[in-house]
Amino acid sequence: MRTLVQTFVGEWPIQAVGKYFRIIEADGVVDVRIYRGSYPIAESIAVGVGFWMSPAGGFDRVDIVSATTQTVKVAISDGEGGYDAMTIVGDVKASPKQGTEINQFAPVTVTHEATLLAAADPLRRELRIKNDGPNAVYLGGATVTAAGSPVKIEAGAMWIEASAAAAEWRAIGANANLVVNGSFSGAGVLSPWEEYGDGRSIVLVSGGKVRITNQGVGNALISQQFQFVANRKYSLSINRVATSGPQFRVSVGPSKGTSTWWAINSLDIGVSVYEFIPQGAGWLTLWINSPVAGEWVEFDDVSIREVDSVRIQEIR
Description:
Order of helices and strands: EEEEEEEEEEEEEEEEEEEEEEEEE
Strand content: over 45%
Radius of gyration: 38 Å
Low-confidence stretches: none
CATH architecture of the largest domain: Sandwich
Number of domains: 3
Distance between the termini: 50 Å
Oligomer: single chain
CATH class of the largest domain: Mainly Beta
Shape: rod-shaped
């Protein structure tokens, strides 16, 4: 097989013996006439790239006619041949297949840990994620981090995902821990936590935890103050390490030792996470909720972070 190329307008006569003819490249359409022994044996009008012919008995001449100046490349062979390349001439309009189902997911609370927004689904065509929270959130897969994700949705903004909508999607926030000294890592250091101040408790900070022991005067407790934003949602994470009995409490309120906005009287051993909505600046209080002298409770890894919420809609 040999190839020939010519830029021309009008007629391009090709004197060549062969059994197979094909147009490989062309800017537009052309007319093709096939000859054998000076006699035309075949003619095709307004053909383009990909046109081929293999007349019985072969040919010895091909005339190509173009009404406009263009470059044409052809292949001629005296045996079998092939050419799979193709050039599309003109405009191509592609329309994605339309979805037929819209599903609305329940709002999802986004914290500082990767939170599942949508499980992988091969039938999903598009995913729409709206950030309803006051802070930016970051999108990605199971290992997404706020620092590593290139997809950041500002407060009030929406992300529309079409190229990887079928994948699993998670979100993570970057809100700072508001609790100071929540890990109690400095031996003997309680500040900025405050004791109740009337001698009702013994507070020991040691080994990365705090122990609150009742002196028999009243409920023993420690508190820390925060400048919460009214009506925003916050997440509290706390580890109850150990306790001498069931009488303990964690609460949030407008002043030290109050539980106006949220409280719980029973926590499992280990880490527990809760959400609350304050009405302004307030206090977090950790209690040994018993007047009996000697009763104690131990906590560590206390954190409070503002949380965000996203709405999700999928197209299937």
